[in-house]
Each structure stands twice: as structure tokens, then as C-alpha cells.
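Appendix B. Raw example, untouched.
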Amino acid sequence: MESFSSKDLAMKAQKKILSRMASKTMAQFFIDDTSAEILDELYRVSKEFTGNKAESQKVLKNLVKVAVKIGVLYRHQKFGQRELALAEEFKRKLRQGAMTAVSFHEVAFTFEQSVLTELLSESRDLLLRLVEGHLTPKSHGRIGHVFNHFANVDLLTKLYGAEGAYPAHLQKICAGLNKLIEEGTL
């Protein structure tokens, strides 16, 4: 017997449409100003690190696409109790990562790239488990692409170094993260 659900069809259409519209304008429609500023700084860091505008745009575009798709799934209550528990665990891990990143910035000579790399890897794995039965392998690849890019040891080392424009970018990223933490958003 064939099962048809217009609600499922609508959700799939929303995910597809929104993933095709992942641009800076759409990101600003779905996220607050502070998060947009953090994303802008992450783009600048990525662009400076890679020297490749297209690759940096792709990383941020993938981040926005995944965030929007997860938002659609959550809005349509597609996550079960186990998955909601994973979502809470992911949020805690992300908050821990943000607090660690800020702490490394604020307290001189405390940066340990292996700590941030591990937190980002654990966050990636939690997110992949959360969306395991909901998103396509292509979306799973996007998640890996984003987290692996920002967990890159060389990128983190440069970001927390004293050379170039990295310190200014890190200052803005940490100021935004602090604001999100204080507001309880993160």
C-alpha cells in the first residue's frame, strides 16, 4: 500500500527550496544579527586561511544549508525523544566549544588546538547522529565539510596566533560568542 503525506511532501519541498536559497540574505532572514556577524568573521578567517573565496563561500553556504534544514525538521517535529536528547547534547557541546574558544582568546598562552579540534569533532559526530535518518548523504557530507574545515589544526593555530588579521577576526568572533552565551542563545 502506497503511503502519501502532503505534510511530508511540504517539508521536503521546504528543505529543497531553502537549501537552494542559502545565501547571505537568506541567512540574515533566519538568524540574528550577532550570529550573522560571527558567520561573516568565520568567512573572513576561512578566506584568509585558504586564499580561496569560492571555497570559503562554499563552507559558509553549507553551514547555512544544514542549519536551515535542521530548523525545518525541528519545526515539523520530525525528531523523536532520542533525537531531541541528542540535540540537547549537541547544544551543550557547542556551548562548551564556544566557551572554550572564548577562554583561549581571553587568557593568554592557554590555547590548545587539540582541545578545540576534539570539541568540534565531537559536535560533528553528535550532529551526524541527530540527522542520520533525516538528511541525505550529501547533507551529511556538508556537515563533515564545515566541521572538518574549522577543526583544521593549521587554521586554528593561525586563528589563535598573533599574525595578520587573525587577532581582529578572533576578537569579533569571541565578542559575538560571548554575547550569545550571555543571552542564553548558545
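End of appendix B.
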